[in-house]
Recover the amino acids of this structure.
């Protein structure tokens, strides 16, 4: 990374003449300035331009004002009057990045509304109205409960939740069925446009659900981080008020999320089948491990801890912290230590790593859940080939991927802004078709949302 710039020569223009100055970091939106000792500009002096020489030519910024006078020890402060400049970008990258530039994008974004069909608009408007009414009625009750002692408020809220849930979840399911009718034949561009329009309209409701807020804001840069996965595994109400609790819980109960809980159980079952068939110890690699909540079923007894060693790989440090916490929790539960190794790496760099087998070792069982859905077909194929090279003879790889007919597909895309690469059985088998002698098969979880590609290397 480039070191931050500590000072920069520049000139300020005033009344047709140039004053040579030095600029310093001050705040994100203002600059520190040192003026020549021969000049005495009072606070409030306005300069018509600030010109910064750069290797590619001069960078010119609009009107600026001396807002804080320089002292013998400290530079003065320059603020901008007509534009809002990113002063870090100026000092470190030598470019005038005007933060008001977004104004020019507004007409484009507002114009997007004209490309939304009347049926979809009417559906969104009705949904907006209905949710406003539901929220108003639920919130009224919550306000009443707040006046009660905690145990009374708690009991009353539980009663409301139980009743409201039946009706409200049924209502939401109906709106999702209608969404599916409206969008199932859309092109990817149409989905993107309508999804954006939908989320702009429903934003306040989305922000009221802890789960949807996180999937939309993506604080780790992607949907499906360890915190979201934990929310799915915990499958609990979150939030203070009934309306928010319900909007958090509904997507977490949907088939797409149930598929996550199903695979958490299914993959350890497959792992133990392989362990029994191969006899002896089993070296396991979990690729894109996330919080690794399946370890509860991988290590069920002290004997499992002696027989199985595991390498947990993920690109996200926070995911690995969560995985580490799972390992410690399972160790405490069983009173035994687990041979676990954490590897902070992306599978994309694995592709370029010639030393991989000698560094990671070879494995009898490799599994990856919730990652292939993020990989384009060429990358997915290349990653599978790489994982196959890490497999011992007689070993098995299990790859989870959502099926094209995932019942939560449009819920995830429109409400959660969670976009995946969906695949068919044929596409999964085709990925394995390049592995030469491998034996491949595909199975489903009970929700039928999730597929498992099983690849076995001949002994
Ligand atoms: C949807 S979560 C699944 C986590 C876990 N396997 C589970 O099922 O609970 C996706 C995980 O994949 C990881 N991931 C995504 N792309 C990756 C990549 N290119 N290399 C390594 N990890 C990746 C993310 O950091 C995240 O922890």
């Amino acid at each position: 990374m480039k070191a931050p710039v500590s000072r920069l020569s520049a000139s300020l223009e005033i009344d047709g003449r140039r004053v040579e100055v030095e600029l310093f970091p001050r705040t994100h939106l203002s600059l520190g300035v040192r003026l020549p000792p021969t000049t005495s500009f009072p606070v409030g002096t306005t300069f018509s331009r600030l010109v910064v020489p750069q290797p590619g030519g001069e960078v010119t910024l609009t009107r600026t004002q001396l807002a804080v006078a320089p002292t013998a020890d400290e530079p003065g402060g320059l603020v901008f009057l007509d534009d809002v400049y990113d002063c870090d970008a100026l000092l470190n990258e030598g470019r005038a990045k005007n933060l008001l530039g977004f104004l020019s994008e507004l007409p484009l974004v507002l114009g997007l509304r004209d490309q939304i069909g009347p049926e979809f608009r009417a559906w969104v408007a009705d949904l907006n109205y209905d949710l406003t009414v539901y929220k108003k009625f639920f919130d009224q009750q919550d306000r009443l409960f707040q006046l009660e002692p905690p145990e009374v408020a708690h009991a009353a809220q539980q009663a409301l939740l139980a009743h409201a849930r039946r009706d409200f979840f049924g209502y939401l399911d109906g709106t999702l069925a209608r969404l599916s009718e409206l969008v199932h034949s859309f092109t990817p561009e149409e989905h993107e446009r309508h999804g954006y329009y939908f989320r702009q309209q429903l934003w306040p409701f989305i922000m009221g659900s802890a789960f949807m807020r996180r999937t939309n804001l993506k604080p780790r840069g992607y949907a499906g981080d360890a915190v979201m996965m934990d929310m799915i595994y915990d499958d609990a109400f979150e939030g203070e008020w009934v309306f928010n609790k319900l909007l958090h819980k509904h997507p977490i109960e949907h088939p797409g999320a149930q598929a996550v809980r199903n695979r958490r159980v299914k993959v350890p079952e497959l792992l133990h089948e392989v362990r029994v068939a191969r006899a002896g110890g089993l070296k396991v690699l979990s690729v894109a491990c996330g919080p690794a909540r399946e370890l509860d079923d991988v290590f069920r007894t002290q004997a499992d801890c002696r027989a199985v060693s595991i390498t947990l790989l993920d690109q996200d440090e926070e995911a690995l912290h969560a995985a580490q916490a799972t390992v410690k929790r399972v160790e405490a539960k069983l009173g035994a230590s687990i041979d676990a190794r954490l590897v902070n790496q992306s599978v994309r760099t694995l592709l370029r790593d010639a030393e991989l087998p000698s560094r990671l070792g070879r494995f009898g069982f490799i599994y990856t859940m919730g990652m292939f859905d993020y990989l384009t077909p060429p990358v997915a194929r290349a990653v599978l080939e790489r994982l196959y090279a890490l497999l011992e003879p007689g070993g098995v790889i299990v790859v989870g991927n959502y099926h094209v007919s995932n019942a939560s597909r449009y819920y995830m895309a429109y409400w959660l802004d969670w976009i995946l690469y969906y695949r068919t059985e044929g596409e999964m088998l085709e990925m394995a078709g390049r592995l030469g002698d491998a034996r491949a098969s595909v199975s489903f979880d009970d929700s039928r949302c999730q597929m498992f590609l099983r690849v076995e290397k001949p002994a």
About this structure: The chain has a mean pLDDT of 95. The pocket of S-adenosylmethionine is lined by residues 224, 226, 229, 288-291, 293, 314-316, 319, 346-348, 369-371, 374 (CB under 6 Å).
